[in-house]
User: Fold this.
Amino acid sequence: MSAATEPHNSVATHCPFCALQCGLTLTLDEDDRPVVAARDFPTNKGGLCRKGWTAAQLLETPDRLTSPLLRDPEDGALKPCSWDAALDYTVAKLQSLRSAHGNDAISVFGGGALTNEKAYALGKFTRVALKSRYIDYNGRFCMAAGAAASQLAFGIDRGLPFPLEDIPKADIVLIAGANPAATMPPIMQYFTEQQSRGGRLIVADPRRTATADTADLHLQPVPGTDLALFNGLLHILIRDKLIDVDFIAQHTNDFALAQRTAQHFWPDRVERITGIPEATLEQTAQWLGAANSVIALSGRGIEQQTTGVDNDLGLINLVLALGMAGKPGCGYGCLTGQGNGQGGREHGQKADQLPGYRKLDDPAARQWIASIWNVQADALPPPGVSACEMFDLFGEQIHALLVFASNPAVSAPNAKRMRSQLAKLDLLVVCDAFLSDTAALADVVLPVTQWAEESGTTTNLEGRVLLRQPLRPPPEGVRSDLDVIAALASRLGCSAGFSSEPNIVFNELRRASAGGIADYSGISYARLKAEQGVFWPCPDEAPAGAPRLFADGFATEDRRANFFAVDFRDAAETPDQDYPLFLTTGRLLSQYQTGVQTRRIAELAEAEPQPLVEMHPQMAKTYGIADGDRVRVTTRHGAVVLHARLLQGIRLDTIFMPFHWGGQHSANQLTGTALDPKSKIPAFKLSVGRIEPWPHSEEVVADVATKIGKGL
Assistant:
């Protein structure tokens, strides 16, 4: 084991969960068990949420995978085998499928939980060892809309183009479609400080969430009408001459196009569309227009829609019209969700990208990366397609899938169809620490390391690159994802260029990213330890990298930000007589993603032991539903049976389901496959459905739910 991965009895590291990447200290107690302690790190300032405090328990779970599993062709069961047997079988199948169908018969799906080193190695492996165009990652489900909007408007995608410390400096913070009180609780201290300084917090969300409860003003739009809200606010700002004319003239393009669209969104029309009273719209616009500093933050609520990119662009139009970009205490930011959702999309996991956030169809970018990888530029495959489009090709053009750090059997939209697509593959290989829902369907399962068993970097929502350090080595029989990638590459004939040492991989990533938008070339493990993280772009040894972007202009060719004419249009699904309710999905405080990790932690499992559907008590009364009753929720895509939770803070026309459970309770059995045309993000936040009491016995409920899950 190298010095970079040598474990210690106590290490300063980072939480494995959300994109805040809170600093914490891991130690081994007298019984050699890992224990979490708080650490005064710049992002969380000693704070941790329940998930962070209990994260060490993941390292002690009794059902941890410690041996590769291979599906027995005779009885169909997954059975333990040696690493050589698992890898040899995998490579033999890959080579056979490539011979029969070509290189593009193989696909790869990564995850935002992978370190930067792993994300980089996975993109290189797909394009050099497999020679396939087909790779994407689960950030397509999460950050794709915000990333696309930022690139269009600013020429760069860094979740927050400013540090968290700027939030308390803002007179107004507008959070649209996010609930950080549940998804990243330690960040709430920044909003509390902002309000204590006299600032105002506005939250736009159809649900009165824990975050909305803290707001000075809660806007509760009809689901799917966010863009009408933003265009309406822009209309009032223009009408009342509350925009920054000088900033617009000197630093932006195409304001007239956005203005022309906004003129059609007068307040009483916006009230009819959104359900937000005209007086509230006027008050919101006046607060924004009178502020000296405004920060607007978007989340999945406005992004996981078929209009996700346009929604973000509408919010960015507000920020630009107010002249609130490129200055401390101002700007638009996207609240990244997954732990390394930012870094995971910068270095080659996305279908169209190369390291450093370069474009795969850019000849200069191809030439540069080819020189780092010691291949010919024309040997690199062309761009592939987005995740959902890739899944559609299973069984036709694509015959094998390798999954790293993801659980698409639960996280993909229309989960029943996703499982059917996976069944069409000739080979499914899953790398995971646990037998996830997807791993249970695989032909080969490879046990890999967890967050505290190896070193590696992540990039948090601010664009701050961080170093995770190992506390102790993994259990016997467990290898890292980098080991797996290197071993598969070697067996495929690419013995050079794939290291299993994180520090070596990171140094190659630094060279590959040099000169790119996400330039990490000036960052090293030593700097990350000494400086408590470094902001990218960092092309040299400048202290702290670039905490704030846009002070000297935007990252576009002409250094000006771009307005966009984004007109409101109906969602892919709207309520009707058969499906009268909006269904939206999201997270709960005590769970994370598909629950593979958090549901294995006793305290978190006890806090939210079962799936549920939230609805307003008045609406529930009209259906004859009481709190805790079993109900059936049905959409155009499927049905599930689960328990009702009645809450006053949700709209009467809306129900909410968390997506942390798989199987018969999977929320994504109810979501469709409609995509945003620009980013290809699925519309998780906007389906339509109906609800009804389900007063049957537990046995009948389980049987019916199972049949529903099988499409019977």
